[in-house]
Amino acid sequence: VEELLQYCKIKQKKGLCREYTLIRTEPPAGTFEQAKVKANTNKNRYTDVLCMDHSRVHLNTRDSDPHSDYINANFVDGYKQRNAYISTQGPLPRTFGDFWRMVWEQMVLLVVMTTRTVERGRLKCGQYWPPELEDREEYDNFTIINNGVTDFVDYKLTSLILQNNMTGESRKINHLQFLSWPDYGVPHSADAFLRFMHHVRRVQEERTQACSPPWIGHPNGPPILIHCSAGIGRTGTFITVDICTRRLADIGTVNIQKTVRRLRTQRAFSIQMPDQYVFCYLAVLEHAQNVGLIENIDLANFEDSSSDSEC
Ligand code: PTR
Ligand code: PTR
Predict the structure, then answer these.
(1) Interval between CA 229 and ligand 1 midpoint (Å)
(2) Contact, 105 vs 219, CB < 8 A?
(3) In the chain, what percentage of residues exceed pLDDT 70?
(4) Ligand 2 within 6 A of CB of 238
(5) Is the pLDDT of residue 13 over 80?
(6) Could you tell me if the CB of 48 is within 6 A of ligand 1?
(7) What is the pLDDT of residue 1?
(8) pLDDT digit string (tens) for 67-113?
(9) How many whole angstroms separate alpha carbon 141 and alpha carbon 103?
(10) DSSP letter assigned to residue 153
């Protein structure tokens, strides 16, 4: 098994990069009309990472502004769960209010962040939540209060209170931030990533069980909201590994290529670098090894794609 893993790590990397390059050449599976409307363009963090119309999350329209329903966020299906995730960009100061409105309207319980706010001296994501205990921030009609922070080796868990100042209701929101994942890169170890992923699952399960339905529009519980800076590279990698490892546990097989293709039909451009695509394979293999299912993995994909083509 160790040998197999090593083999995949080194020999097959090029083949997987080729597989990824093919995926990347496919045109996006939809239009980007709303993202391009003049009133919305400054709500996108990156001009080249727009959000597809057919799967976008609509905010409830406000006042007389027909464009107040736009946010750069898409629903993404999970393993046997429609709209299991919302995949979105790192909020911009001008979209903090929209971001919390989306959390409220979609009944999100858990926000997963796979970026730091600043990386290599560049702003990657706004500070849209109060980082210190008992701090509070107000955005539009919401007040967000920090109710405690717990540090882990590669990530941190924050408890937030989200208060809707229009209705007086408040909800508990968990925030899990992974700290050791550079943009355009991969986590330093699959193990650290897998530990984080399992924590994400545990929190979502606990919170969904503790809160009572109905989840309007989400019969199996609310979506996990996940974002990085652009909401495609690291977010896409996280979702792919989550889906594939769930499927492995359920029916004993995985298909990373198909999973990524499907993901990209809902959140365009998901998975940004060849290394992130290869990392999906490594993380799934490492997980399979940890849970004793490595024999179940059909290595045909690896075999087929072995070639000397360039990445
Ligand atoms: N225009 C940006 C760029 O300079 O590449 C878009 C971009 C930024 C794309 C970050 C992906 C990024 O990574 P992630 O989705 O992991 O935040
Ligand atoms: N700045 C990013 C880059 O140059 O990689 C922006 C980008 C994002 C470019 C997505 C292309 C993208 O689409 P695709 O993944 O389909 O090539």
Answers:
(1) 6
(2) no
(3) 91
(4) no
(5) no
(6) yes
(7) 52
(8) 999 999 999 999 999 999 999 999 999 999 999 999 999 999 999 99
(9) 13
(10) S
Residues 137, 146: Cα–Cα separation, whole Å: 9
Ligand 1 geometric centre to CA of 295 (Å): 36
Give residue 175's identity as a one-letter amino acid code: H
From first CA to last CA, the distance across the chain in angstroms is 26
Q: Is 244 a catalytic residue?
A: no
Q: Return the minimum-mean-pLDDT range out of 16-20, 128-132, 136-140.
A: 16-20
Is the CB of 49 within 6 Å of ligand 2?
yes
Query: Of the residues 8, 17, 51, 228, which is catalytic?
Result: 228
pLDDT category at 7 given cuts 50, 70, 90 is low
Q: For 196-290, where are the E strands, in sequence order? A: 224-227
pLDDT tens-digit profile of 142-178?
999 999 999 999 999 999 999 999 999 999 999 999 9
What are residue 158's DSSP bridge partners? 149, 175
User: What pTM was computed for the model?
Assistant: 0.90
Beta carbons of 103 and 91 less than 8 angstroms apart: no
Q: Which long-range contacts (CB under 8 A, 24 or more apart) does 258-263 make?
A: 260/20, 260/23, 260/236, 261/23, 261/26, 262/77, 263/76, 263/236, 263/239
The SS3 of residue 157 is strand
Are 280 and 260 in contact by the 8 Å Cβ rule? The answer is yes
- To the nearest 10°, the Cα dihedral for 82, 88, 93, 95? -50
